[in-house]
Specification:
Belongs to the PTH2 family. By secondary structure, this protein is α+β, with helices and mostly antiparallel strands. The chain is built from four helices and five strands. The protein has a five-stranded mixed β-sheet with strand order 3-4-1-2-5, with helices on both faces. The radius of gyration is 14 Å and the shape is globular.
């Protein structure tokens, strides 16, 4: 089995600066911790320095529509995904859906493999 990883899929059309991007990953990490009970074994494996070592992969999609479609496809294939929504204190409007976090998993899927690393 592969190493468990958490995936953060962020909208590139928002053109987030590095600081704002870091905050979105922080929001997504909070979602993982809040939902750890959903799959405690995968969560613990992700935390373990010999298994997952809290690996985080940041990927991109080009629009809200693509993000919504991706999330629907992943959920239909058994992945746990949670919305990353910004409060809008700066750079984006309140309640902007900036991305999703895919709960730590060791499963591989072509849906994730086709995504590009966020630049």
């Amino acid at each position: 089995m592969d190493t468990p990883k958490a995936y953060f899929v962020i909208r590139s059309d928002l053109e987030l600066n590095p600081a704002k991007l870091a905050v979105q990953i922080g929001h997504g990490t909070d979602m993982i911790w809040q939902h750890q009970i959903i799959d405690q074994a995968s969560f613990n494996a992700w935390l373990d320095s010999k298994q997952g070592d809290r690996r985080k992969i940041v990927l991109e999609v080009k629009s809200l529509e693509k993000l919504t479609s991706l999330k629907e496809k992943l959920v239909n294939n058994g992945f746990y995904c949670y919305d990353i929504v910004d409060s809008g204190y700066n750079f984006v409007e309140a309640n902007t859906h900036t991305g999703i976090v895919i709960f730590p998993t060791a499963a591989n899927t072509n849906t994730i493999k086709r995504l590009r690393v966020y630049k």
